Amino acid sequence: MTNSRDPIFDLPDGLDRLVEIMRRLRDPEAGCPWDIEQDFDTIAPYTIEEAHEVADAIERRAWGELEGELGDLLLQVVYFTQMGAERDLFDFDSVARTVSTKMIDRHPHIFGDESRDKSAEQQTRDWEVQKAKERAAKGETRTLDGVALGLPALTRALKLQKRAARVGFDWGNVADVLSKVSEEARELSEAARERDADAVEDEMGDLLFVLVNLARHLDVDPEAALRRTNAKFTRRFGAIEDALAAKGRHPCEATLEEMDALWDAAKAAEKKVAE
């Protein structure tokens, strides 16, 4: 009797099996049609989505979900390295070697002769100096070179501003930034009154950009702050729906005044619990 057990099940758990699974999925003759059709461009959006799902699980303290989300994110790396191997660009081992070398080079106080007696702040400065050298070696000599275009807009704005601040292009204090927020809000209001769609979009971008700068000066991560508010809005709007459902009604059947009152009630309930 022939043993039909797939050899994949005999591989040890871990990266070797995962890498082989991806190689099989991408096999042009015996692989999965969907996986075979994918390329770097089509997989990139999934990678961003999976990274956000990891962050979401951490923010919700959903530790039981985090393992699976990290696995999904790791799968994205394996996907890219398999496609890289198919084009003779790189493979999983070469990617691992590259990042290992980078970590060793950026931590001479651990893997070299430098003193380990330094603060986290000093290490951050040293890290930035090393990254600047690496960017220069790649021909990225301008201050804002290398800030990835694919980052979420708020995160990219924050990184751009931090780079500019390193060379002195920055406001001196929070009051100056708040003044700029007011200025940009007025300009947005003027553009809205003139009903100039292009100007409204431009001014809205300026206002969002300066709000990111305000967050930076207040030592707040704008992405984290907005995620927190998104969660708060979802939670409170859910309370509105629950209150209406208890009366056999749907939000579409309620007035704005009713929903505002229920929102305030949900807000007050949250504050009471927090106390």
TrEMBL record:
InterPro entries: MazG-like_dom, NTP-PPase_MazG-like_C, NTP-PPase_MazG-like_N, NTP_PyrPHydrolase_MazG. It comes from the Bacteria. One of its GO terms (biological process) is dGTP catabolic process. Residues 38-111, 178-236 form the NTP pyrophosphohydrolase MazG-like domain. GO terms for molecular function: ATP diphosphatase activity. It catalyses: ATP + H2O = AMP + diphosphate + H(+). Its EC number is 3.6.1.8. This is Nucleoside triphosphate pyrophosphohydrolase.
